[in-house]
Description:
- By secondary structure, this protein is an alpha+beta fold.
- It has helices spanning 20-37, 54-62, 117-133; strands at 41-44, 68-72, 76-81, 87-93, 99-106.
Amino acid sequence: MNSMDSSLKVEIGEYHSGNIPPLLHEIRHALRNLLDNGETTTIDLRGLPMAPGEQQQLLDILGKGEVGAHLDALGKSEITESSYAGVWLIIHYNSNHEVMGKFIEITRVPAILKAQTADMEESLAALQMKLEEI
């Protein structure tokens, strides 16, 4: 696993917003807060002012970790842990494969992957019915 080094140098092209270093600091603080207080943080990448290419540069800096998941629920979603444990990239697509949401979530397990209570209750009832058939 990488560590966020304070000597990180961000290569910038002709245009830049200057938002990558502050965003990396925000992610670092969020990870610290997750470890200390158990609080999760979600950053909406589509809501940030970034120059062309900066979002990809940020994702390149974060890298790709060992865990990933794909969901098919009201459109496709990709969930990928970055090379920093607990820092996740979540992308939601519509049926035309257009990006509808792009987030960095700092959490142990992304909320979208957690089983919902109503779904578990339905599963419990279905399993009970299956057991009664046997």
